[in-house]
Design brief:
With 325 residues, this protein is an alpha+beta fold. It has helices at residues 17-33, 47-54, 72-80, 89-96, 98-107, 120-125, 132-139, 165-173, 228-232, 247-263, 299-306, 311-320, and strands spanning 5-10, 37-42, 58-61, 115-119, 143-147, 157-159, 178-183, 187-195, 211-212, 216-220, 237-240, 269-277, 283-289. Helices cover 35% and strands 22% of the residues.
Length: 325
């Protein structure tokens, strides 16, 4: 099935609203070039009434963060019978909740940095602060503290010593009531985007396996890690695609990305972020993003371009995922 009229869902209420607006604008332009009738919707209180009135053939989800990636919008679209791009509600919930995703990866034997979690409520109600010293000993410094829910590196803090950890926890708790405390992996920041097989390709079927695109390495020019500014400010990061890696490392990173994509039940498109440990050479999976950015600095379009997939073709391919679930 093909879509004639497409509603592009963008903006919304999350802290990633501005990035979403940029992704949505790029998608709109591509869909118009492709000949689709485009309806741009800034996700707010009138979103579902607007969709019901417009009756689009499909919704292209360009919402990052809250509502767009946590399964909320996906569940509503299923309720009103509108086909939509990307993963379904359950997969979105698994990927957006970093704590749940890491437990699932650990149970499945996927290498992910060692971690513990803390809920803000448990500090008051269960005396969880008394466990922090044991967490420090078990993981060692430096540590990465991050909100359990959220993206774009928002709220991610480093702690090099015990003295820095309380401040890092307070900073992360300001974004979410649950935080991950994770062993810091020093090394190279890699991203592997995964696309479902092109439904229009010769011999493609619904069961055709997804494919991993060329790896993108992000090298921040100034910041200590790939933070919000590094991700979205042009000139803040050097991107290398395909990443200059040994062939065995490339193959392993793509294999891990495909395994995680399947484990978490992703559909259509996703991006899996990994670290390549500079000391051991091991690959560690950090997280999975079910609505990868489509801005001028985003990693998915760079990976697609390296695979010979232009931006318009990428958008059309993601759009077709609305009809292949």
């Amino acid at each position: 099935m093909t879509a004639g009229r497409v509603a592009v869902l963008k903006g919304g209420r999350s802290l990633e609203r501005n990035v979403s607006l940029r992704s949505g604008a790029h998608v709109q332009e591509a869909l118009q070039r492709l000949g689709h009738e485009v309806l741009a919707l800034d996700a707010g209180p009138e979103l579902i009434p607007e969709l019901l009135a417009a009756k689009p053939d499909a919704a292209f989800i360009a919402l990052h963060g809250r509502d767009g990636e946590d399964g909320t919008v996906q569940g509503l679209l299923e309720a009103v019978g509108t086909p939509y791009t990307g993963s379904g509600p359950a997969s979105c919930m698994r990927c957006t909740d970093k704590l749940l995703a890491k437990h699932l990866m650990r149970e499945a034997g996927v290498p992910t940095p060692h971690f513990h979690s803390l809920r803000e409520a448990s500090i008051k109600q269960l005396g969880a602060a008394a466990a922090i010293a044991d967490i420090e000993r078990g993981l060692g410094f430096p540590l990465v503290v991050k909100p359990a829910v959220g993206g774009s590196a928002l709220g991610v803090k480093f702690a090099r010593t015990s003295d820095e950890l309380p401040g890092a926890l307070v900073g992360a708790f300001s974004y979410d009531g649950t935080v991950l405390i994770e062993r810091y992996v020093k090394g190279r920041d890699l991203a592997v985007s995964v696309l479902d097989a092109d439904p229009g390709a010769q011999g493609a079927t619904a069961a055709t396996a997804a494919v991993a695109l060329p790896i993108v390495e992000a090298v921040p020019r100034e910041e200590e890690f790939y933070d919000y500014e590094s991700r979205y400010e042009i000139g803040m990061t050097t991107f290398v695609c395909p990443a200059e890696l040994p062939s065995a490392t490339t193959a392993r990173a793509q294999e891990l990305a495909l395994s995680v994509y399947e484990l978490l039940g992703c559909h259509g498109v996703a991006r899996v972020d990994l670290m390549l440990d500079q000391d051991s050479g091991e690959l560690w999976v950090l997280e999975t993003n079910v609505v990868p950015g489509l801005t001028e600095t985003s990693l998915l379009p760079q990976a697609a371009d390296a695979a010979g997939i232009g931006f318009d073709d990428l958008v059309e391919r993601v759009l077709q995922s609305a009809f292949t679930r």
